[in-house]
Amino acid sequence: MLHVALALKLAVWPLAQEGLINWPHFFIVSYLSRTSFTPSCIYPYFCRMDFKRRRLAVTLRNQLNYPLQFNPFVFSRIFLLWVAIGIIGGVIAGVYWTVLESLLHFLAPVQGLWVIPLMATAGLLAGIIIHKLGDPGEMDLIVNNIRLKGGHLEPKNNPSMILSSWLCIASGGSAGPEAPLVQVVGSTGTWIAKKLKIRGEDLRSLTIAGMAAAFTALFGAPLGGTLFALEILHHKHVVEYYQALIPAFVASCSSYVVFILITHIGIGPTWNFPVYATPELNDFFYAMLYALAGTAAGWLFIFIVRQCRSLFQRFGVPIYTKMMVGGLLIGTIAYFVPLSRYFSHDELNILLAEEFSLEFLLILLVAKIFAIAFTVTSGWRGGFIIPLFFVGATVGLIINSLFPGQNLPLILVSCMAAINACVTRTPISTIILLSTLTGFHQFIPIMFASLTGFFLAPKTPLINAQLGLQE
């Protein structure tokens, strides 16, 4: 040990003399070696050392100047950046949600026939905002930028996205806040990466981490939100950008905590589902059978959305005119079928708590599908994930009305999982999200239903940007 200590001081002394390291570092090394030093004796010897030893000394200097490199853990500085993105995302989501709830309570008294002019006006105002401040795009554009533009999401149109989506969602559009928040928080991740001169896959990873933070804040499921942000980027490959997996996990966890602290929503299932009985082997077969109905509803939804999109694209009118027409259509549906209004976050609990006739459920199913289709194709801002869960639950209640005495919780989650996996192509995250949102903790039946919807989905996905470059 004495020879090791003496060699260490031999390497450090001339560097201190030449100013290559700080004198405090030299005294620290000398103290740790527990031996005395005599520079007058060792300096002539050290001056004759060869190039290899000098390079070793320079390495030691770098380690002394950057003591974090001695860190024996996986933890690193980049971890703090992931946490920071999650915290920022949680703050953005928390403030957005708080304002949205205030607007929902403010506009809730508008009922009956007044819903139609309200939603037409909201569409007109949101369209004017987009026309003046810039078009922030939709989920298709987000996926396209992540896949083809290196993960660059431009934050310049975030004010347009925030203001227009508040109007669209609060007035009663059948689209939720997940898509606007994914754009806002994801572009914030891009902005931070650019400010720190981060490029390539690291920039894409930070953008995806921001997207995951947004999904997690709304769904209350860090694991599910992370996987959803990764799965939605491709229609076949579950995790194409695997480098972003850990950053997305870290950002999701910090975002989840911050969002709960701001909104005081609490931890637990979002929807009050019936209690699931002891699982049986037959449940896996029934889950796939029920999933066929959910998948069929997914096919119907995709067909109607494509027809409505084609219809609106034929009109060469400004965005605010198109959104006003969309508001008239959505408002008319909401007037005749009030339960089809809004993005179904609270309406799903009403659907589960009350008894509805088979005729009403069939009308509600058609009304909700058209309400979502008019919302997303006429330029209204919002996401259709939570509304799709509502459609799936409605299909499940229709099956239960046609064949009473079945396992209702199993029917509901199977149809909800199948339609979401069919439309969004996210089979794995759907399992986690539904388990968290419904309190249905038996993963395997949901897995069978989700995979059924995924593999029986149309070959061409609804989100065209999910297709690979060669497809």
From TrEMBL:
Listed A to Z, the keywords are: Membrane, Transmembrane, Transmembrane helix
Q: Name one GO cellular component term.
A: membrane
Gene3D superfamilies (UniProt xref): Clc chloride channel (1.10.3080.10)
**Sorted alphabetically, which InterPro entries does this protein's record hold?**
Cl-channel_core, ClC, ClC-type_chloride_channel
Look up keyword Lipid metabolism and say if it applies: no
What the entry lists under SUPFAM superfamilies is as follows:
Clc chloride channel
Specify the superkingdom: Bacteria
Q: How does it sit in the membrane?
A: Multi-pass membrane protein
Q: What is its main location?
A: membrane
Segment forming the signal sequence: none
GO molecular function terms listed in the Swiss-Prot or TrEMBL record: chloride transmembrane transporter activity
The answer on whether this UniProt entry bears the keyword Transmembrane helix reads: yes
Cell location: Membrane
One Pfam family named in its UniProt record = Voltage_CLC
What residue ranges are annotated as transmembrane? Answer: 78-99, 111-130, 206-229, 241-263, 284-305, 317-337, 358-378, 384-403, 410-434, 440-457
Protein name according to UniProt:
H+/Cl-antiporter ClcA
Q: Which organism is it from?
A: Pontibacter chinhatensis
Q: What is the lineage of its organism?
A: Bacteria, Pseudomonadati, Bacteroidota, Cytophagia, Cytophagales
